[in-house]
What we know:
A: about 250 residues, alpha/beta, Rossmann fold, B: alpha/beta, 2 domains, five-stranded mixed sheet, 12 helices
Amino acid sequence: MAKVMFKRPAALTDKQFHYCPGCTHGIIHRLVAEVIDEMGIRDHTVGVCPVGCSVFAYDYFNMDMFQAAHGRAPAVATGIKRTLPDRMVFTYQGDGDLASIGTAEIVHAAARGEKITTVFVNNAVYGMTGGQMAPTTLPGQKTTTTPKGREKEAAGLPVKISEMLSTLDGAVYVARVSVHDPKHITQAKKAIRKAFEVQQAGLGFSLVEVLSTCPTNWGLSPKESLKWLADNMLPYYPLGVYKEPAEVK
Amino acid sequence: MSKVLMKGNEAIGEGAIRAGCRHFFGYPITPQSELPHYLAKRMPEVGGVFLQAESETSSINMVYGAAGTGFRVLTSSSSPGLSLMQEGISYLAGAELPCVIVNVMRGGPGLGSIAPAQSDYFQAVKGGGHGDYKLIVLAPASVQEIIDLMQVAFDLGDKYRTPVMLVGDGILGQMMEPVELADEVTLPEITAKPWAAGGLKGRETPNIINSLYIVPEDCEKLNHRLFAKYEAIATEETRWEEYRLADAEIVLTGFGTAARIAKSVVDKARAEGIKAGLIRPITLWPFPSKVYAKAAEQAQRFLCVEMSMGQMIEDVKLAVNGKKPVHFYGRSGGMVPLAKDVLAEVKKIMAGGDE
Lengths: 249, 355
């Protein structure tokens, strides 16, 4: 008898992703969907997608979804959670959305200990608008708005979101993971699961920062991008659990 | 029913609760602060949620989330705060989410003053945010009318799936008047919202709250759908008050506090033998244009009284359509027109002194 070993999670629709070849958004969508399936929460989960490359995530996640204004997903998620406290609510946001235009919303959602989960995808560049500098762009990294590479004097240094948010009492689970190889993908999934469990237990705000690739705007092949992430992003953005409540350790 | 003395800002809060609203998101700003103070105490009493947001930008997006799950939700602010909310209001209009937004207006532009004004008329009725959209805009002129119109605001929002704005000013917000209130707080019947995205809960097809239509043809279709809805609202929901209009030779007009002052001037003018009347739009959008057009058949002149440099007057002129002269008297920046000055203006106009 043939046995199905691998299939699309129920939490993903059959709509084809629009992401560029080698972009890791697809992997991260899948991880979130698998966690939702495994926890059996699809029926009472509501997702909020951002402005940026993942703006169409509402077409891919097979559940009730919101599309939020640029950077405002944590505020929208707050509105959802405060009307329906028994629902699982997550935001899915890129680095431009969360770490630039949406810093106030993410900081205060975390500070309030809002019982939501944020999946923060950091690929060190603006994707959809054409490869501009993001707050997370590395020093020296070339983008369309830093043609000579990001210079500290002109553009400052990258924002380290996980480190920053973990200083807030309301943020109870904060982890940075990566998806550049299978081992790290497995670890990333565990972190996402934990973040959802923290929400389910009503412990407070949880966030998983996922280091991701952008072959198109990095000007690299998909394979080169994975290596570039490992060589350049990992040293600047150390992986690990920055905050973890005793209840889920 | 009991008669109680209430402040305008508190009446907004109590009116919302009576209308079945149990969620408020807002950021402090003068001169509407009594409203959040009231709701911070009152919402927990009725099992509701009061949340002080980090900014007006966040409050309006919390409203977007709460409205999208199908709940009646309120936010309130004053002029500069409303400027910050415009992005979110455009999204609410695009995603067709019902909610009530209150603007207790103060003097502008910029940080302006904290005194009462009406200079956000354009922002409220012409679309302060980006894109083609309209809000239903209600303008009460008394504390009782605030209570009554809060119910109307939530009902119309749900009926048409549209954000509704209620505009007042610092005077209306701060003054106390007796209001009739039912002794019991009862939850009104609220329309079912099968479009709400509060989790599948057994439903097969996901609901999506969204204002993105990446294909231009689809985005144009959205605009056509919105404007068909706006046309229905204009036909069905236009509200206004007429006062001593039938034989009026000069028609005073204004909304909210300015209309109350104008109304008192109508009586004063009549006492001096000038046939004055009043049109007070209660919905600023949809604007009661037909009432002005009809009045223009017999009245000789119009005088628009506003607490601004003249904003509603543009709609009055469009409605009168050149048939009769439309004069203007306004104070701005937080200054309030005095009845005696408006009366002097009426006399000057009727003596032909403003030709």
